């Protein structure tokens, strides 16, 4: 009777409720027998009014409805009215229309208006069962997804009620776990190491840790170790004494300024080994000296560090001190790449949309298919650009200007010489800035520049002391 294996068909229909609305008793009985045989619970109604009252009283998973309810009627008008009533009362219940061959046009129109399917009378049992089964499976999957979404929304709301989540947006289980962990470790005084690829949200997570710590109201400073020349990093961190080098004035460093508070050390993996030693000392003893001074000072700072480099590999290479790593890595929060938590893509995209803009369904598909090598930052840039450039309020897929989705996820976006050159120009030659702008790692940008024959300029950033 059916092309499907009886077992799985039964699994789809068992204990699901199907409401059949047809004035013809023979039709009602035929459906009752056929669907009950496969385990469904079947309700029958002889008129639209009876059908609507059954719909209101019972948990109906699927409706099968006729289009004409009186012997002399053939226009289908009653069926259309019934369809609209059901849609209005139970928008998510799928409806199969039973229609005469002469009224296929109406049926097709109603499918466009949201009917799930139509079946011409006299129907074929196999075709009908396949349609019923698919719709029930779909409905179950949708209900499960909906239940999961609302459980997650509850978990998110519960967390947001107890903690300051700094406006972070997520939907995925992975981020829920991570954010919950960040709020839990916030109270401990221990260092936190946040790892993850470029633009994935490491800094957002650092802010959550700080905002929920005992030090929330104390000083909070951020130092990006990648954007400062090596010579200036130690001055920035530890301060200088007048005359430490030509032109140096007495100046407190970040460790002094953040005393009692929190210091966010971004791009930790770029710190030179010599500076790592000084950092380790202040972490172990709370002691440091300003550059050009032998006078030890004390400070009590909580460190949150972030890196996109694999520090374990750097330890093996000898470019990162193992003892420093274990000092900082008391708690590690690992932010997954956006491509590993695709449920977050659309909520984030919605969040980044300018007021009044929407994403067309094609644009949403394109966002979901794209591998996002530059993670959330790249998504944010893409949405902002689309809002700026889109003539329409409904953003089309083309307005996102995403590189054609490759069949295998790529590591780096495809960039031409002009856009790399433009990014370098905007960043005044500071590689870290240009790389961030392009959603690349610095190493990837260097490689790209080499390939494109672009010279590495010395940064025009602060002059070395
Ligand atoms: N879950 C999120 N919800 C809302 N905004 C986010 C989220 N994740 C990232 N962002 C935004 O995306 C941008 C990049 O995030 P962030 O700076 O935290 O990334 P990162 O991992 O520190 O990147 P990098 O390694 O390049 O420093 C920021 O503008 C941030 O506000
Ligand atoms: Mg960052």
The stretches of 5 or more residues where confidence is low (pLDDT under 50) are 407-411, 457-465
Characterize the main sheet: 5 strands, parallel
Strand content: 5-15%
Question: In the CATH classification, which architecture of the largest domain applies?
Answer: 3-Layer(aba) Sandwich
Overall structural class, as computed from helix and strand content, comes to: alpha/beta
SS element count, helices:
20
What bound compounds does this protein have?
A: adenosine-5'-triphosphate, magnesium ion
CATH-derived topology of the largest domain: Rossmann fold
How many angstroms does the end-to-end distance come to? 86 Å
Average pLDDT level? 89
Count up the domains: 4
State the name of the first-level CATH class of the largest domain: Alpha Beta
Radius of gyration: 31 Å
Based on CA inertia axes, which overall geometry fits? elongated
Biggest sheet strand order reads: 2-1-3-4-5
User: Roughly what percent helix?
Assistant: 40-55%
Can I get a quick summary?
The chain is of the alpha/beta class and 465 residues long. Helices cover 47% and strands 13% of the residues.
